[in-house]
Amino acid sequence: MEFFPIVYLGYMFVSLFFLLSFLLLYKKNRKHLFDYPKTEKKYGITVIVPAYNEEKTVEDTVKALLNSDYPFLKKIIIVDDGSTDNTLKIAKKLEKYSKVKVYTKKNGGKASALNFGLKKARTDLIAVVDADSYPAKEAFSKMVGFFDDQTVGAVTCFFIPRNRKAFFERLQTIEYHIIAFTRKLLDYVDAIYVTPGPLALYRREALVKIGGFDEKNMTEDIEATWHLAYEGYNRRMCLQTYATTTIPKKLNEWYRQRRRWNIGGLQCISKYKKCFLQRGMLGFFILPFFALQLFLGLLGLSIFFYLTTTRIFNNYLFAKYSVSLGTPLITMEDFLITPSFLNYLGVVLFILGAIFTLIVLGIMKSGVLKKQNIFNILIYLLIYLSVYPFIMISSLYHFFTGKRKWR
Amino acid sequence: MTNQKYVFLQALILTIIIFNIGIFFGYQLESSRIDKINNWYLESDLELLDQKIQSDAFSFIDFDCDLLVKENIRFADNIYEQAQIIEEYEEANRINNEIILQHKRYDLLRTLFWINSIKIKEKCNPNYHNLVYFYKYNDPSIEQKSMQNVISNLLFQLKQEKQDKIMLIPIAADNNLFAINLLLEEYNITELPTILIDEEIKVVSIQELKEMDKYLN
Predict the structure, then answer these.
(1) Are the Cβ atoms of A341 and B1 closer than 8 angstroms?
(2) Average pLDDT estimate for A64-71
(3) SS3 content of chain A, % helix, strand, coil (to 5)
(4) Is the peptide bond prior to B193 cis by the omega test (within 30 degrees of 0)?
């Protein structure tokens, strides 16, 4: 067999394996996906809201937190990370609420703001909430029960895009649902690899043990999660509650955000590479999963570039010779394609992927399937996901050249 | 919460099973295409044998030359069409290497047909041209591939125009078959792709291809 068919089969095998893993996990747990443990314990919570130029959203974020039905929410610490807009002024006004405390510091990045807030917090649990995210009223009440298990170091929940009307936002909305759902499934195998910034609840003791957030990492949330896994802490996902969050409206904002995620992932791979096939699921799943994603993405992209370049060159020569000989550039035979069995396998795999996507959108309680048409789902599956390897190239460049900007 | 890491093992087993089923069906699909080519080959082989006997018996039996030539052209058209379909199947072929052997068998069949056609031409002096198209089969360069695609279109166009005036015989020249190698040597074919017209004129360059029409009148 030739090289390319072997590579295609390899891709199909890996895709099918992960798809089946998720389908099996879903089948085994479908009745309990939205369950959450209830607790009698009274965990105190301090919320840290790192804010850098968030004048438009910080007030609503704090109001959403103040609206929480959780009775033991002790303090909301807003850490202004040297904003150049009116964030500090707006935040200061919020100090009229007794629970709100505002600090300001020289700009040092999100992780440094979180570490600053962490030093001020004294409660059992620490919540991290981005200044453009809005936890649901019952979010903390539904998340705290997971901490009755002493091995749990962090709990996250479902994030729903706040702005989801425009076409590009709808695509991201599909993605957020898939991510949340698969994260819940990964929960059943102790393989949650990130407790994202919009809302994550940490055991303070665990955060202290890992030394807080890594200020050198572009994605402090991914790093903290890996570090918790490294220290043997479990991470949990509560699908029953949510926080809404603002997602990029423009392609360039989205591109920069994804590049930052990728660079953070690369930094984590680099930092924890010594754990490969060690330290439980960190070394046996999370790290290999990230590395495999990176490898397959780059290999796929290399093949894509090779095939595209040769195709363009081939077509150029074909056109040149055809024109000089007066032969047709396109014939009926060009439209008669004899499919190979790889084409059939690809179609089967695509259908399975589409079914999985429809299952996810169908069972998530935000009713997102009703708001999505089949066109959006097809674009998401065929185009949106294909863009990721391209972002990886730019991320690698920035990773190796050290050009790492948070925004 | 019970840990469910065993799911990965279950998924792996299931993936291997589904994957093997997929490969099996793929193999079956390719085998069915090869069976189809096999049947064509057997029919063509039989027909060629029939023609060969006719041309060999020509020296002592009085045959109708027109009929023989007509049959010869019909057969040539038939195996030319088959060659096009086989090429499509080959492009879609991924796991069953038998198709490469089939291709070689067909190349030999077409070579035999060409030789037989030369004999018929000598005896009947018919009004058609033999166009033997030698092309590169194994790992052609991008340039050769583009050129071969254009030549295929050109020959197809010529065939549409000239109909029974030309007999197209495509032969892969680099399959290391002794009989074909001998003929390549005999006609001094050193470059690929090359079109040999009536065992005399070699057409290789773009310029010669442009002027090919003048050799076919």
Answers:
(1) no
(2) 96
(3) 55, 15, 30
(4) yes
Q: Which residues pair with B166 in a beta bridge?
A: B129
B157/A318 Cβ within 8 A: no
The partner residue sitting opposite A341, judged by closest CB among B14, B30, B149, is B30
Q: Give the H or E element holding residue A297.
A: helix A287-325
The single-letter DSSP state of residue A164 is -
Residues A114/A84, Cβ–Cβ less than 8 Å: no
Q: Which two tokens stand for residue B162?
A: 């000239």
* CB contact A27 to B (< 8 Å): no
pLDDT in tens, B176-185: 999 999 999 9
Contacts (Cβ under 8 Å, ≥6 apart) of B88:
A336, A338
Are residues A191 and A281 in contact, defined by beta-carbon separation less than 8 angstroms?
A: yes
Judged by a CB distance cut-off of 8 A, whether residue A321 touches chain B is yes
Q: Where are the beta strands (DSSP E) in A54-166?
A: 73-80, 100-104, 125-128, 133-135, 152-161
Give the pLDDT band of residue A250 (cuts 50, 70, 90): very high
Contact with chain A for residue B84, Cβ under 8 A: yes
CA of A356 vs chain B CAs: smallest distance (Å):
15
The distance of A261 to chain B (nearest Cα, Å) reads 26
Whether residues A189 and B14 touch (CB distance < 8 A) is answered with: no
Query: Is the CB of B15 less than 8 angstroms away from the CB of A345?
Result: no
Provide the residue type at B149 as one letter: N
Q: Does B154 touch chain A (CB under 8 A)?
A: yes
pTM of the model: 0.86
CATH architecture observed for domain A43-286: Alpha-Beta Complex (3.90)
- β-pairing verdict for A234-245 and A133-135: antiparallel
Q: Which chain A residue has its CA at the smallest distance from B86's CA?
A: A338
User: Measured between CA atoms, how close is A215 to chain B, in angstroms?
Assistant: 33
Q: Where are the domains of chain B?
A: 1-125, 127-217
ipTM of the complex: 0.86
d(CA A29, CA A362): 16
Q: How many CB atoms lie within 10 A of CB A199?
A: 30
Out of 3.30.40.10, 3.40.30.10, 3.40.50.300, 3.30.300.130, which CATH number does the structure's domain B127-217 have? 3.40.30.10
Nearest residue on chain B to A25, alpha-carbon basis: B7
**Cα end-to-end span (Å), chain B:** 85
Beta-carbon separation of B15 and A17 below 8 A: yes
User: Domain extents for chain A?
Assistant: 43-286
